[in-house]
Design goal:
Strand order of the largest sheet: 1-2
Number of strands: 2
Helix content: over 70%
Structural class: mainly alpha
Distance between the termini: 50 Å
Order of helices and strands: EEHHHHHHHHH
Radius of gyration: 23 Å
Number of helices: 9
Strand content: under 5%
Largest sheet: 2 strands, antiparallel
Shape: globular
Length: about 220
């Protein structure tokens, strides 16, 4: 008769193998809390897109014009959705490797979430103005979030909280710090041309792709 393994048991004379128990990550609660804060932040940004108050009932013509006038809010929302999406993907990727935590890591994560929570305000300011100061405020906010996220990754590597190869964490670090590079470079551009600085933020898409490809390159 076959020997029973650690995951086997008898059922009506047959040997049945149990599903192996998945090892729990002690950061599960931290990850769930972070996901919730990020989801609420995106929801709050959507709430900022509102029709202006009107003393008379909306007609098709006036409603259409009002919707067109909200185009800065649409653009700002889509931009921030993309930016926060990049941060969320980086956060999830990072914590697949970081399997333990310390008080310092928890507080760094709280600082990261505090800065993420500021995004609806920065987004609204950008949508309402779009001039030099609003552009610098938005770029500075995104760069600060990126640097905080990078500091969290660096600390986890140095503190031995990650159960993974060094190369995998370097790849995660590159992806996380890409927004800091793109948005920091846009700040001096905004001093001369805020619109050009805002257009430069589109470089986040190819830069993030390149960072991912660079991280996958085999080491010689």
């Amino acid at each position: 008769m076959s020997e029973l393994g650690p995951n086997d048991f008898f059922d009506n004379g047959r040997i049945v193998q149990k599903e192996p128990r998945v090892k729990s990550n002690e950061n599960d609660r931290l990850i769930t809390f972070s996901d919730g804060v990020i989801a609420i932040t995106i929801t709050l940004m959507a709430f900022e897109i509102r029709l202006p108050d009107s003393a008379v009932p909306w007609t098709d013509a006036t409603l259409w014009q009002a919707l067109l006038d909200l185009s800065p809010q649409y653009r700002a929302y889509l931009l921030s959705f993309l930016v926060i999406g990049v941060f969320w993907l980086g956060h999830r990727s990072k914590f697949t490797h970081i399997t333990r935590h310390s008080q310092a890591l928890v507080w760094l994560n709280m600082l990261f979430l505090c800065e993420i929570g500021f995004m609806p305000f920065a987004t609204d300011v950008l949508a309402q103005s779009g001039e030099r100061l609003a552009t610098i405020l938005y770029a500075g906010t995104v760069a600060t979030i990126s640097l905080t996220s990078g500091a969290m990754t660096f600390y986890a590597m140095r503190a031995g909280l990650a159960e993974t190869q060094h190369d995998a964490m370097i790849k995660a670090m590159l992806s996380i710090l890409t927004p800091a590079l793109v948005f920091c470079l846009s700040i001096p551009i905004a001093l001369f041309d805020p619109r050009l600085a805002q257009l430069s933020w589109l470089l986040l898409i190819p830069a993030n792709i390149l960072a991912g490809r660079f991280g996958r390159q085999p080491q010689s």
